[in-house]
Design a protein that fits this description.
The chain is of the alpha+beta class. It contains nine helices and 25 strands. The two termini are 30 Å apart.
Length: 530
Amino acid sequence: MTSPAERAAPSRPNRRRFLGGVGAVASLAAAGQVPLEGTALAAPRIRGGAYPFTLGVASGDPTSDGVVLWTRLAPDPYSPDGGMPSRPVPVDWQVALDPGMRRIVERGTVSALPGLAHSVHVEVEGLAPDREYHYRFRYRGDVSQVGRTRTAPRANSAPGALRFAFASCQEWSHGYYAAYRSMAEEDLDLVVHLGDYVYEGGVPADGGLRRTATPDVLREGPRDLDRWRMQYALYKSDPDLQRAHARFPWLVTWDDHEVVNDYAGAHDGTDPANRVAAYRAWYEHQPVRRRSLPRRDGSLTLYGRTDWGSLAQLDLLDTRQYRSAPPCGWGEAPACAAGHDPATGTMLGATQERWLLDGLRRSRARWNVIATSVMMARLDHDGPTGDILWHDAWDGFPAARRAITDTFVSAQVRNPVMVAGDWHSTFVNDIRSDFDDPASPVIATEFVGTSISTNGDDEVYGPYYGPMMKWNPHIKFFDGDRRGYVTCTLDRHQWRTDLRMVPTVSRADAAAETFASFVVEDGRPGAVRV
């Protein structure tokens, strides 16, 4: 998002699935899914003997009996081949009950493929529900750091609580990831990343606010697969991002900057070859499952559902790949009648929207969490004198928003709560059944988190959007220019949100503090500050 303000200013293969990645053809994808005999000790040498696990480890998409484990071999991450031989190589992995990796419960060897930048996605199954595990990888004599992960509670069980953090918008050159350093010290079950994991621009020689020299090859922004891989390598080289990935399982979606600012599917002239490359690089660098393998046309399935026993259902949305052009105009533009016609515009596409609404209707969870990259609540820009809205968010697709809010009401969805990113600002919003009627009931709650680093320490959105708050009484809290993340703690009685802010992103060691806290009571939509 860029506002006008910014522009101005071997083991039981039948019990376990293995994934080494996907290439441009199906045979390449299949090659990475087969467990290998032997170990990575006999793997080919890396030129120069460099350490291969420079980008860390990660886990994601936990179920009640498994999780995805990720790493990428990249001893030379800013070369086109990452410093690896141009052939598949074996990588060992282990899962243990203890961080010392003495009580091994699962292990295997899988192929890392050059067509997938030698990334590894291992889908481990057969684990116990609601339990902490530890994992690591090995290539020849090199061993990765040990990661920590966990499984979800069993379906229909009643866990006492769920605690997760959500984050978004981490432009590397805008500052350090101090927020992740603090996040890694928290006691969390999950992290939800809502997009803008990388940005599409070139990287300054001095590293921007980080004041760190960067390789010359990064000067121009990504336009092909090799360069997108280098962009992810830069971001994932950050030690605090690595620490947060190694500490918790993540659920990951994307927003616009993983391709280009404010794009809408294939409807705005976005270079299709660059979009295909960007999507593939995203897959190569995230802890996601086989269902997200890029297809021949470059598209992939990202959206999905995670159940945390009977306590929570988390629906992770893809608000970019399937959206149409906004029916009333791009960016800041007046509202129009066409926006209320479901036939003229879509945010999710018909298939994803049907999946979401059907899942909400069937849900028996106490808390129904929708993770959406962009804000759902209305943001009236000019009050009674006009009808200007920001059409890159759900304001640009009011019919699609209404389909969701109507379902909240008609299906009596229990405790719907939206979490969103994108805006580099913090909002706490009441979601009303009809934003055209200020007297309509509050039916859901929304928390919009600020950026990890984007906009740096500058004041950009506060001065621009702050004066608009008087026209938006459903927005209960706004802060435009602090950086950080959000933690959410859910139990059977209430949801608590803590806004965790850092004082600056000019230092990696700036500690986060709780700036404000809000509670949503079971059965009572709307957040109350505590």
